[in-house]
Automatic annotation (TrEMBL):
The chain crosses the membrane at residues 49-69, 75-98, 139-162, 168-190, 241-262, 292-309, 315-337, 371-392, 412-436, 457-480, 584-605. Pfam families: Pecanex_C (PF05041). The keyword Phosphoprotein does not apply. InterPro entries: Pecanex, Pecanex_C. Residues 1032-1202 form the Pecanex C-terminal domain. GO terms for cellular component: membrane. Belongs to the pecanex family. This is Pecanex-like protein. It comes from Kryptolebias marmoratus. It is found in: Membrane. Keywords: Membrane, Transmembrane, Transmembrane helix. It is a multi-pass membrane protein.
């Protein structure tokens, strides 16, 4: 992304025109009075008539009622019936227009020069006009439902705004008329969006309205007002003042709809269930909508059962048991019983990303040990609650100092302050991120050293875990079980309050401890004085209100900090200072009570604070679930770099489990966001769900190809982390103060994770050094000999399942991948050769021409012809001992004549041979490699053990002159061959005698066999002379082998070809290591190095599938050779798997929600998808670009996103 100035337009000209056409339509509920092109007057008149039709019918009913010709109920029914008839007529016309316009569209050709929104109107009732005004419904059920609802809404709306009712409420005809007129405007807007044309809502939750739910949004809110008025009329619960206020608020519904404050139906339902589950029933936000629905239903059932249980002891025991069970992650029982690796594999993580100690860690696998612990906790809690309630539950003393709750109350206070202090010292900062923690180690980059320095904090964390997860829940249960308000359980409020209280003790022990301490302090402050209205609520309801208050207060403070950050940085940051910055600051300063009211309202509704275009223009976003997005968790925009995040997710989840349990990342709550940084990787972590002993998170990976905006914010992230973790110990107030406190990111802790460290080196001076290149040929021969002998050893041990004659796919797998097929589903190492080995490239003037495989005459005018059998195929079929050769295409211009032998070409027939002697045949040139024609599959080895190291017969048939091989014989390292043969011989035979090893080394037939194969491979890849060109080395490393005389033979043997390519890559890695570390001093060192390459390294290309698989399988090291075309240099890339410290910080959750709310509004409503828009530009304090990336697709673009990961936190 190219960063533009701060005065980049918020909306480009096209989007501005589009927005000012859409927004009036949203305000009025659907009428399109601003089209952008000329339209006949009847288009506007028809829309105005349909808009005012409900008012007309309601006015008829109101007039008849005012004239006392009809009663209120009858007048409302009449208005509703008239509206129902009108709605049915509109739907019938829409259906007629859809059918007629469909027929017209099939006959007429579209005019591509006309604007896509422009409609050619012919008359006021033409199908085009009707379809433009009333598009109709997609589903027949919605036609019936919306039509009936329109009539019902008009009838009840007429009854709701009768003039007599309004006059009785306000006592003034003038006020009543104003309320009557504006109320009907609200009703007309809702009716139009329901039955005629639905406007796009500013409060958009789903990207697409598949089931036409949006038309029901505005009628729903009107129905809520009408329902409250009905309750007010027929009962004395609601005072008259409330009805007056609601009638006035009813007038502002169009404004709330236009501003997007009121949520759509789906978001309202999910948000409402989440709020009731968390604050009314003691649960937690869920990681998916299905889990939320199921947990809400089960939790509601528990509260209902508590209300009908007659015994208070039964209520206590039932609440304690169900609260404990529902706080566990019950949905993971089936998955976790299969083992932790199966669980993570179901989450889309590769098993290689899990550390080996997981199966023995508590909580990963729900086995006998975990069941025993959970059952013990449940039995102890029930026994404690039952005994305490039986003996002390009926005590009459309410004084904490003299009653049975007194000692427990003081214990809870002590536990609270101890847990807070022990948690606070676990992080890099204390006191809300304002001051550096002097106890936290700094300036350490090694994981083991960091753990040793942190040992004291780990002991404190272990003490905190015992106090928080074992001692505190039982202390809180004791406090609740002895409460006297349990005697009045058969009140709905008290029943719900205690159901929540016993649940939240386990679901969120830290929050429950805070709420009880606040309640105890209030009671201690009140002493013996009764607080009117407060003491009659009961302890359960009091805890509910305290929990709601503390949550809203924390949201208010976070939103206020976000507001100040946006306001201050809009002026202090020069690159964010727009021309309108001064004006906006002046408006916010003069209207600060309004700004404060907006922040307060958004906190009370638990709705995001929406900064419009991320400017200091604050609106209340519509309430939505904590996850912020409607879709399932785990969607991403994958790319090749996604594998690095996928590999580290398993290890990161394991470490996060420990960090969460220790409290290193602070207090955890669903909706919390964390950012991790390591080298060029950014990890976004979101808490989805929290319970007793488990936590559910979503891990996202941000792009590695950093744009300019990404780089600016990443640099600021590095500065924030450096100030917290890499600076030496600092003393004093000014030195210990967090200079980045206003930033959205607050550093928490550094955690040790097994990740790949990425090192890139420019190979100038290595790949172009003549001294190094001279060694490459010798190293290639040694590596090839080692791989050939190793191939024989593995074949002997039965690890090679496919023989030379088997069919081989186009993707060439490495020998180690075949070895891995016996132990895992995916190969541990695979070499994908990009060049097509079935069609060989002929090079001329250093440029590749079209291969023979592309010279095909298959594009025949008369269709494809049957495949012809050529001479090579017939000859191969005639020789059963040889592998089937590939069928090449005919050269351009050649002609094949059809014969009587089916589809066999005449040229494919072998010449007739007389019986006996080959009289009359052309003489065979004995100088042209007669071994190709007569190669015996059996060789006479002098040593019986040499048969183990025999090579396949097809590997001995290279079409090369013996003299040519003889001239290259000095290149064969005989000493290395004998040394390697001796080492592999011992590996195959075990304890062998020295005589057997000596006989094996002195077998000349075996040696000559390997000499011939190795030198043939050397010639086939064009390496018979010393390497002199870096470009040639790079091409050969990539598998782009230039055409040579023996390339046809080498490529026909897939396994030999991949062994040769692997040998060359090993030799280049040897060159790289020797240039960096020095030459190999002995054959033993070279042998061990090649063993290490085979065992611990993947040496190939980044674009190969083997690279992807090796990263997921956590190969310890990976090496790749690259070419930078812009710089003209060759680069080496080394990935090394090691335990590294990843710095993790907490983000301002309300700032993230606010920016995501603006992103949703800007893209889904304003359709401002400009990649250079202002709201996506870099912001070092708000981290605006990173936050946009981390949003769920299609609005964001993380390259990796895990499914919800459940892991234990005890």
């Amino acid at each position: 992304m190219v960063r533009m100035g701060p005065d980049v337009p918020l909306l480009n000209e096209y989007k501005q025109e589009f927005f000012w056409k859409r927004f009036p339509q949203t305000v009025l509920g659907g009428p399109r009075f601003k089209l952008g092109y000329c339209a006949p007057p009847y288009v506007y008149v028809n829309q105005a008539v349909l808009f005012l039709t409900p008012w007309l019918f309601g006015g008829i009913g109101t007039l008849l009622c005012q004239l006392q010709l009809l009663q209120e109920l009858h007048a409302a029914v009449l208005s509703g019936m008239l509206m129902f008839a009108a709605a049915a007529g509109v739907q019938a016309l829409a259906l007629y227009a859809a059918r007629r316009s469909g027929a017209v569209e099939r006959l007429g050709a579209p005019n591509i020069l006309v604007d896509e929104e422009e409609v050619e109107f012919t008359n006021c009732v033409s199908p085009e006009t009707l379809r433009f005004i009333a598009p109709g419904k997609r589903f027949g059920l919605n036609v019936v439902l919306h039509t009936v609802l329109a009539g019902v809404l008009c009838g009840f709306g007429t009854w709701y705004v009768f003039l007599g009712r309004l006059t009785g409420l306000y006592g003034s005809i003038g006020v009543s008329l104003v309320v009557f007129v504006l109320s009907w405007v609200t009703l007309c807007i809702a009716e139009y969006s329901l039955i005629v044309n639905t406007a796009t809502e500013t409060a958009t939750f789903q990207a697409q309205d598949t089931y036409e739910i949006t038309p029901l949004t505005r009628p729903l809110y009107i129905s809520i007002f009408i329902a409250v008025d009905i309750v007010d009329r027929f009962s004395s619960i609601a005072p008259e003042l409330a009805s007056q206020v609601l009638h006035v608020l009813f007038l502002f519904l169009p404004l709330l709809w236009a501003l997007g404050v009121l949520p759509p139906l789906d978001a309202l339902l999910l948000w409402g269930m989440e709020q009731v589950l968390v604050f009314g029933l003691g649960g937690s936000p869920m990681s998916s909508n299905i889990r939320l629905l199921l947990m809400f239903g089960v939790s509601t059932s528990v509260a209902v059962c508590n209300y009908f249980i007659p015994s208070t002891l039964g209520v206590v025991l039932f609440s304690v048991s169900t609260g404990f069970l529902l706080s566990l992650d019950l949905s993971q029982i089936g998955t976790l019983c299969k083992g932790p690796r199966a669980a993570f594999r179901n989450h889309g993580l590769h098993s290689g990303g899990l550390p080996p100690f997981l199966p023995t860690s508590f909580g990963w696998n729900l086995g006998c040990r975990e069941l025993l612990v959970y059952l013990s906790l449940l039995l102890v809690a029930m026994a404690e609650a039952g005994l305490l309630h039986h003996f002390f539950g009926s005590a009459q003393s309410q004084n904490l100092t003299t009653g049975p709750q007194g000692p427990v109350s003081y214990l809870l206070i002590i536990l609270f302050f101890l847990c807070c202090a022990l948690r606070e010292i676990q992080g890099a900062y204390v006191f809300g991120g304002m001051f550096l923690n002097p106890l936290y180690p700094k300036g350490i980059s090694n994981g083991q050293t960091f753990k040793q320095k942190n040992r004291g904090l780990y002991i404190a964390a272990a003490i905190r875990r015992v106090l928080l997860y074992l001692v505190s829940p039982f202390a809180m249960i004791a406090f609740l079980s002895m409460d006297t308000s349990l005697q009045s359980l058969h009140r709905v409020s008290v029943s719900v309050g205690f159901t929540r209280a016993f649940r939240v003790v386990w679901q969120s022990s830290e929050d429950a401890l805070l709420q009880m301490v606040v309640l105890i302090l209030v009671r201690l402050a009140g002493g013996n004085n009764l607080l009117p209205g407060w003491d009659h609520l009961g302890t359960g309801v009091q805890l509910l209100l305290v929990g709601l208050l503390t949550d809203r207060l924390s949201q208010f403070l976070a939103k206020l900090k976000f507001t100040l950050t946006v306001l201050v940085t809009s002026w202090t940051e020069k690159k964010q200072r727009r021309q309108s910055a001064g004006t906006l600051l002046a408006l916010n300063a003069s209207l600060w009570p309004l700004v404060l009211a907006v922040v307060t309202l958004s906190a009370l509704l638990s709705a995001p604070l929406l900064p419009l275009f991320t400017l200091p223009i604050f609106l209340v976003g519509f309430p939505r679930p904590q996850r912020s997005w409607p879709g399932p968790v785990g969607t991403a925009c994958p790319c090749p770099d996604s594998i690095f995040y996928q590999q580290m997710s398993g290890s990161l989840a394991s470490v996060l489990r420990t960090a969460f349990a220790r409290g290193s990342l602070g207090s955890l709550a669903p909706g919390s966001h964390f950012l991790g940084r390591f080298q060029d990787r950014m990890v976004w972590i979101m808490i989805l769900e929290r319970g007793y002993g488990y936590c559910t998170v979503n891990i996202k990976g941000l792009e590695l190809q950093e744009t300019s905006c990404h780089t600016v914010e990443a640099r600021r992230v590095d500065e924030v982390f450096e100030a917290a973790f890499e600076q030496p110990e600092r003393l004093g107030f000014t030195q210990g103060f967090n200079l980045h406190w206003g930033n959205a990111l607050t550093p928490c802790a550094a955690i040790a994770v097994r990740v790949y460290s990425d090192a890139r080196n420019v190979l100038s001076g290595i790949i172009d050094s003549h001294e190094n290149l001279r060694k490459l040929q010798d190293d290639f021969m040694k590596a090839l000999i080692w791989l050939l002998l190793r191939y024989c050893v593995q074949r002997r041990k039965g690890f090679l399942w496919r023989s030379e004659e088997g069919s081989v796919s186009g993707v060439i797998k490495s020998q180690s991948s075949q070895f891995a097929q016996t132990t895992c589903n995916q190969p541990s190492e695979a070499i994908m050769v990009e060049s097509n080995v079935s069609s060989y490239r002929i090079r001329q003037d250093s440029s590749s021409l079209t291969s023979f495989g592309d010279w095909s005459d298959e594009d025949d005018l008369f269709g494809p012809q049957p495949a012809r059998r050529t001479v090579a195929l017939v000859t191969a079929e005639a020789q059963p001992g040889h592998s089937t050769l590939q069928i090449g295409a005919s050269l351009p211009g050649s002609v094949e004549m059809d014969s009587l032998f089916e589809n066999m070409a005449l040229s494919a027939l072998q010449p007739l041979q007389p019986l006996g002697l080959s009289i009359g045949m052309p003489a065979v040139d004995k100088g042209r490699n007669p071994e190709v024609l007569r190669e015996s599959p059996h060789l006479n080895f002098s040593c019986p053990q040499s048969e183990i190291f025999n090579l396949p017969p097809g590997w001995r048939t290279a079409p090369l002159l013996p003299s040519r091989l003889l001239s290259l014989r000095p290149l064969f390292p005989e000493d290395w061959f004998r040394f390697t043969l001796g080492r592999f011989g011992q590996a195959v035979q075990g304890e062998t005698s020295e005589d057997m090893t000596k006989a094996l080394k002195e077998d000349e037939v075996l040696k000559e066999l390997h000499v011939k194969v190795a030198l043939s491979c050397l010639i086939s890849v064009g390496a018979e002379s010393a390497f002199t060109s870096p470009s040639y080395i790079y091409r050969l490393y990539c598998g782009d082998v230039p055409w040579t005389e023996g390339l046809d033979w080498l490529s026909s043997s897939k396994e030999l070809y991949q062994l040769t390519l692997q040998a060359f890559r090993f030799s280049f890695k040897l060159l790289f290591d020797q240039a960096s570390l020095g030459p190999m001093e002995s054959p033993e060192e070279l042998f061990s190095t090649l063993e290490e390459y085979e065992r611990d390294w993947y040496i190939g290309l980044v674009t190969e599938k083997g690279w992807h698989d090796s990263v997921l399988q956590e190969k310890p090291f990976l090496f790749s050779l690259g070419h930078d075309l812009t710089m003209g240099t060759y680069t080496g890339r080394v990935l090394s798997l090691q335990e590294q410290l990843i710095q993790v910080g907490r983000l301002n959750g309300e700032g993230v929600r606010g920016q995501w709310a603006n992103l949703s509004w800007e893209l889904l409503y304003a359709t401002n998808d400009d990649e250079e828009r202002y709201s996506i530009q870099a912001h070092p304090f708000m981290l605006r670009n990173l936050t946009v990336q981390a949003a769920d697709p299609p609005l964001g673009y993380p390259i990796y996103s895990s499914a919800p990961l459940h892991f234990p936190c005890l």
